[in-house]
Design brief:
Elements (H helix, E strand, L loop, with lengths): L1 H14 L7 E4 L8 H14 L3 E6 L2 H12 L4 E4 L1
Length: 80
């Protein structure tokens, strides 16, 4: 379902230069204490479509994951 949504938003994403037209996909909330699992799932979601941003929890593990994946070029949405 997420990929269908991302595909529907792609024309907006392209027209607006990436400012609009993004779809958020949330990492599994049970990973909130596991940096490696958050990073792995985030990178998978990031590989699915250019207009996907990934929701990551702001926990100790999540902050470490946010630092790593933003370094790798992933657009994130920090969630509390």
């Amino acid at each position: 379902m997420g990929l269908k949504g991302a595909a529907l938003l792609t024309p907006i994403f392209e027209r607006e230069g990436g400012v609009k037209g993004r779809l958020s996909m949330q990492t599994n909330p049970t990973f909130y204490r596991n940096t490696a699992a958050i990073v792995e799932q985030t990178m998978h979601f990031h590989s699915l479509a250019p207009n996907i941003q990934v929701k990551i929890p702001v926990t100790v593990a999540g902050i470490a994951a946010i630092e790593e994946v933003t370094y790798r070029g992933v657009t994130i949405n920090a969630t509390v």
